[in-house]
Amino acid sequence: MARALLLRPPPPLVVIVGATGTGKSRLALQLALRLGAEIVSADSMQVYKGLDIITNKASPQEQALCKHHMISFVDPLVTNYTVLDFRNEATAVIKELLASRKIPIVVGGTNYYIESLLWKVLIGTEDQHPDTVDRRAELEKLDSRELHRRLSQVDPAMAARLHPHDKRKLARSLQIFQETGVSHSKLLQQQREEEGGGPLGGPLKYPNPCILWLYAEKAVLDERLDQRVDAMLAAGLIEELQSFHRRYNQEWVASDTQDYQHGIFQSIGFKEFHQFLITEGKCTEEESSQFLEQGIEALKIATRRYARYQNKWIQNRFLRRPGPNIPPVYGLDVSDLSQWEEKVLEPAFQIVQSFCQGRPPATKPITPEPGPEGDKHSRRTCEVCDRIIIGDTEWKAHLGSKSHRFFLKRLQRLPASATQPGRGCPERGEWQRDEEKEEGPVEPTQPWL
Asked: Which residues cross the membrane (predicted)?
């Protein structure tokens, strides 16, 4: 008996990934109930108290059925809760669950939160420096040009990798150097050179990761996401937003200090209704209805765009990247919800059971594809658009973008005296907003840099 216990594999770390609206939370709850597991949310907005509908938190009834961690414990006025904070707290939860031989099921849509749990990719200094927040706040008071100048002096390699306007990352790299005395780029290189490390970071943190990817056909998912927004509205989304705005955001708007880039205020769905919320009781009923409809449409567009970004991350991080530290990924097609039991739940349960028993699952993992070639840290300046582009892939995408083609055609029509970089280029207009409606700006794949 003792020998059998020694030979038992460690419980797997189950991670459910997929675009918003694919049923990740539903599968996590069903698996947890069948396996006696507990759920660890990896959603950067669900850590905050409030906005339960818009952030799609598990209902009180669902949380009563199974223990959920990392939900609704940060004050909504806190704006400096970081991925490091999450990593440290969630890792402690996972460690305790594994020690008691319970299966942790990580589920959520915040990609860099999931990465922080799977791989050794973050440079943490908080334990040694309790005044970290104050130091970071002081750095963020500087403009991006000054931050880039300072970083170039102490860590030219990292300064060359980061965009000169990426204030948050520039401040983070300077903070790391100030607190450790070692450049950020050198620390990352040391991490990659550890046993089991690779081009994207250090080794996997857990010996038995089980990755389940829920995916759906694009048209099916788009329709489902629109229906999800409609369901949120029926559940009281507008009342939730109005109440939250009055309690936490109204005074900031009045003083023109609202911030939709940090904390819970960056939730998809809150800033989209900004015009509707700030004009409540100050405009005609017809105007209010118009602002409401605009907010609903903006929410649907942002949700579809975010779903595409999530799927791109999964494909790039797990299926098209080099290195020995990429775990196998098991794909589950959720396009047809009428076949959920046979095509999603049962295969997922069998896969996790196989990991628990230390044997290969009958379901084969997805075969990785060759990753894109090129230097992701190359730096180019587009003289046509007067923009700095980081990365070969991003440069290629920029050259084919609608905005670049627009500026190029405009430049070709201008007289020679007006063809200086950036001359004659309008502010962001309808053509560019239309482009971003579906694709949106490229989000960082490694926000810890």
From this structure: none
